[in-house]
What does this fold into?
Amino acid sequence: MAVLTGIEPKEVFQFFEEISRIPRGSYNTKGISDYCVKFAQERKLDVYQDEWNNVIIKKPGTKGYENSEPVIIQGHLDMVCEKTEESDHDFLTDPLELMVEDGYVTAKDTTLGADNGIAIAMALAVLDSDTLEHPPVEALFTVDEEVSMDGAANIDLSRLKGTMLINLDSEEDDRLTAGCAGGFRFSCEIPVEKVQAKGQGLLVEVCGLKGGHSGVEIDRQRGNANKLAGRLLYRLCKEQKVRLAEINGGARENVITSVNRSTVVTDDQEQTIRLIGEMKEAWRQEFGADEPGLDIRVTELGEKEYHVFTEESSKKVVGFLVNCPNGVDEYSRSLKGLVETSDNLGVVKSQEDSVRFLVLVRSGISSKLEEFKDRLGALADLLGGNWSIDSGYPAWTFKEASRIRPITADAFEEVFGVRPEITTIHAGLECGLLSGKKPELDCISFGPNMQDVHSFHERLEIASAEKIWKVLKIILKRCK
It folds into this structure.
């Protein structure tokens, strides 16, 4: 049964609900890509789908706009897939269960996918309309933005005639984004040796943290469960004979990790649990109201033989967790309050004979990205790890001269009654890759208010979406 029927703008939320029924996590985009192709074919629109599942749909300009320069509307098809610990939702097969609460659209126990489903829905609404006034529209739907930006990196932009690009992948409706940070993913595997050891097993879960977007929310001082687990394990190993048997935390490097699960083996269960309780109380004082749900849960696994890391291997794994930088590294010296450089230790995963770490680094300055490569690489080398760099993307540099930016600012002022702030952001946007491939692109990014993206608390403000839809329509009407 439709949940969003009657919510304005109806034409946008109709498509948002339709695409919410299609599983579309990163690297699982064939279904949503095929949906977009079918949408275009049914409306006899020009459509192109590449081997990566990127899609370009073209619609001619309306009467009086036939010879106008095309405007590109761009968003990404994939979404971050996060859910509560209790949820049995399968992101490979299940539709999202949408809900409306207190003026927001959200999803039951999962991420909502408004990042970036709302962009796709608005673009589809433009392509579907027979009443809007607009120049030729080129809708560009990319894939795997949330994990690698492979879609934007591999799309053939020679198929696009337009040079003005509207990216709808921003999450605060009082500002226009005209630049963003670049970044890369650091992957490290530390080899581990294991032995049999008898003792009392404990499953230790650092949990209840807010998590969130590792770019937009990195400056909010939220706890990272992987870093906290490293701190806890270091203390346990220092003060007791505690062995690490397994450790796992996080699923994506671009999400601030909310849960880490470690299995440890101890000779003194009572003392270990006491130390864990002390650490929990210390953390609650440190984080206060910023992390009200912060908890450490302990499950007793019984006394028996366990396959555990050797003492040397434990030191290396815990050493990486403790010493890996995490969070804001530096603020901009030219734009006060803007994060310049940060990193996020997003994934820790036990494997058969190693532990894998994934770190996402962001910076608006290329030399700082190089510095972080050296810092992380040196740490990995010191601990005997094997490491690599991938999924790099360039910064999107602010352009002083722009045609689309003043049109957009005027439209915002007409709808919101105030001039929007024009800024750059610390999160990565595809505009950097796209403008790198096509330097003449004149890009702007904006979007409706969203909160707690990349977490199962994600929600989209309905009233804000309605205003942004009005803004988009005005921009298109004025691009004659």
Notes: The chain has a mean pLDDT of 95. The two ends are 40 Å apart (CA to CA). The first helix runs from residue 10 to 20.
